[in-house]
Amino acid sequence: MALIQGWLPPTRPNYHLILTFWQISYPIFGSMQWAVSWYGMGKTSVPSRLNLPGRVAWLTMEVPGFMTLLYHMRTMPALHGVEDLPWQNRVLAGLFVIHYIYRAILFPYLQPSMAPIHVAVWASALLFQVLNGTCLGSWLAAYGPVTQEEWASQSSTLQFVGGIAIFYLGLASNFFHDDELREIRRREQQRQDRLRSQGQAGSIEKHYQIPQAGLFKYMLYPHYLSEWVEWLGFWMAAGFSCVPARAFLLNEVAAMLPRAVNGKKWYAEKFGQEKISKKWAIIPGVW
User: Fold this and answer.
1) What is the pTM of this model?
2) Side-chain half-sphere exposure of 172, counting CA atoms within 13 A
3) CA geometry: angle at 80 spanning 78 and 83, to 5°?
4) 286 lies in some domain
5) How many other β-carbons are positioned within 10 Å of the β-carbon of residue 212?
């Protein structure tokens, strides 16, 4: 059943319109972050009447991505006469869902605390997810390769398996470095618990340290880099001619690179330039 006739799921002409908008709009939006230091979530979140509770906002802006992809995978094959999707399509859809089960659902649950998220950031992220889920879901369900013969020219088995391996390497690194950030909060939470047991009050909502484990020894945002590695592997597995996968990776870089560079400035202001002088922001040897 179509949610929006001709658009959800999209006809082929509308798919190309959405994909074109997706490729152009978010790199422009992301580049605007180079001009401003404000970003209304995480450590740069500030009090505002337009803030949403961190966990609720995160869940509701991230979940629509994989739900949109699954919706297209469920509805589009029958509309386009595809009786049985190749295993490659299902594996790629599964990788996307695996990532977002962690990122959208487990991540906010595992966080000891989450700062409020501004409604503008929430709306931008929600649109990002819906556009991405629509483009990737449409490609996987009908508008990309839907036979083994088409996959033979799209991505060889060796390339596909290599891409999956890179994806899982990035996913494992992402979780490891996310957990190092959580460990900082957990240690502070334990300290605050001890203070409360002594009759003193405290909060871990805005507690920060410079993490040191893993790739944090060399850079401040290895969890961002790890996510790029994930989607590079996904793009490789899908075939380098897969425009939605390429657009997803480039849009992530456009959104997260200025955030990491501005974040390094925040660390310098918070802890002093000498404490981070030997660390890159996100790409060792480059930035």
Assistant:
1) 0.93
2) 7
3) 50
4) no
5) 10
- Judge whether 2 lies within some domain: no
CA distances to 116, 208, 283 from 271, in Å = 23, 10, 21
Range of 106's domain? 12-198+210-277
User: CB atoms < 10 A from the CB of 215, how many?
Assistant: 20
Domain assignment present for residue 104? The answer is yes
C-alpha 196/C-alpha 166 separation (Å) is: 45
User: How many domains does the chain contain in total?
Assistant: 1
Question: 226-254, pLDDT tens digit by residue?
Answer: 999 999 999 999 999 999 999 999 999 99
**Helices (DSSP H) in 101-142: which residue ranges?**
107-110, 119-138
Phi, psi of 118, rounded to the nearest 5 degrees: -65, 145
